[in-house]
Amino acid sequence: MCQLIATDGGFADTIDFTIIIGRIHYYIWNPDPTPSSGATMHSTLGSIGYTGNYGLTLPTSDLDYYSAVFVCVGIYANNYIINASSAEAAALVDYVNSGGRMYLEGGDVWYYDPPTGYDFGPLFGINATADGTSDGGPYAGQTGTFTTGMNFTYSGENSWMDHISPTGTGFLIFYDTDNSYDCGVANDAGTYRTVGCGFELGGLVDGSGVSTKAALLDSIMNFFGISLVGVEEITKTHVGIMTLQPYPNPFRDRVEIQYTLPSNTTQVQFKIFDAAGRLVKNLSLPTAYSLVPTVIFWDGQDLNGKKLASGIYFIHMEIGNQRAVKKVILVE
């Protein structure tokens, strides 16, 4: 919040205003009466380097501040209905149609809630086909999409799970494997992008490799065109140029990490986290100089010198109020 004080002779007027420098990565609106899914998503996104806000109410007039909006309305009987004539529905539809990126999950939001609840299906490239039963999971990602190779068991709420299939520009990203129905759809409409699910992402059980909530959320953010490339200016104060680039990626035995510092400094933190947000490695840095590319290597081993399992890892480099994060994939 800023203040502008205008004076004219003996007259003075104070004007309050806000300046937004760049967009915040995400806002999670979590009206779900049992809010564990949205809370898990918020902590997971933060653990892999994204910055955003979380709330139980929707800031209907401020959505343009965010690159993506995530909405969690829950599973019956613990669910929230976005009324068709509500200011919330109007704000979300306007945000998406203005080029926004939106994720929406809920067990009844697609099939059972409309017409009393707003029908988001056409906007999301979704055709809701059935009210479903209490049979959610396991869920399989779809080859050729950003969920390729993902497989999850499910521990979230599980009651009347809507069946949803793609239509128009929508495409399938998740399929219930033992009950044979579609349950996750992504949509690239050209001017906007959406992801809709009939289950709670926070209820997915982390497996191995790419089958983790962190990998899925990072993949959704990348599908939305939001990636951790270069510098995340935490205080929105630009102090120089910092770059971070791993090669090759994916890697098997060793990855070369090239980085550039914005100024000569010895206070550099360089850490590697797994997809669950656990610290797996601290890297020691050689002497580096401002704007001069420097290279270090990581052999895929953990803090104890043990070879890590194949999967997605995140390289964090922090210098003062700046942070660079890059995703790398370790393969066997």
Task: Tell me what the structure shows.
By secondary structure, the protein is mainly beta. It folds into 2 domains: 24-223, Class I glutamine amidotransferase (GATase) domain (Rossmann fold, 3-Layer(aba) Sandwich); 231-330, Macroglobulin (MG2) domain (Immunoglobulin-like, Sandwich). Helices cover 11% and strands 38% of the residues. The chain contains 4 helices and 24 strands. The strands form 6 sheets. The protein has a 10-stranded mixed sheet with strand order 4-3-5-8-15-14-13-10-11-16, with helices on both faces. It has a 5-stranded antiparallel sheet with strand order 17-24-23-20-21, with no helix packed on it. A 3-stranded antiparallel sheet has the order 18-19-22, with no helix packed on it. Strand 3 (24-29), helix 1 (36-47) and strand 4 (52-55) form a beta-alpha-beta unit. It is globular. The protein starts with a strand and ends with a strand.
Largest sheet: 10 strands, mixed
Domains counted in the coordinates: how many?
A: 2
Mean pLDDT: 86
Record field, number of beta strands: 24
Question: What would CATH call the homologous superfamily of the largest domain?
Answer: Class I glutamine amidotransferase (GATase) domain
Helix content: 10-25%
The oligomeric state is: single chain
CATH domain class name of the largest domain:
Alpha Beta
What is the fold named in CATH at topology level of the largest domain? Rossmann fold
Q: Approximately how much beta-strand content do the residues carry?
A: 35-45%
CATH architecture identity of the largest domain = 3-Layer(aba) Sandwich
- H/E topology pattern: EEEHEEEEHEHEEEEEEEEHEEEEEEEE
Distance between the termini: 50 Å
**Biggest sheet, spatial arrangement of strands:** 4-3-5-8-15-14-13-10-11-16
Count of DSSP H/I helices: 4
Broad structural category:
mainly beta
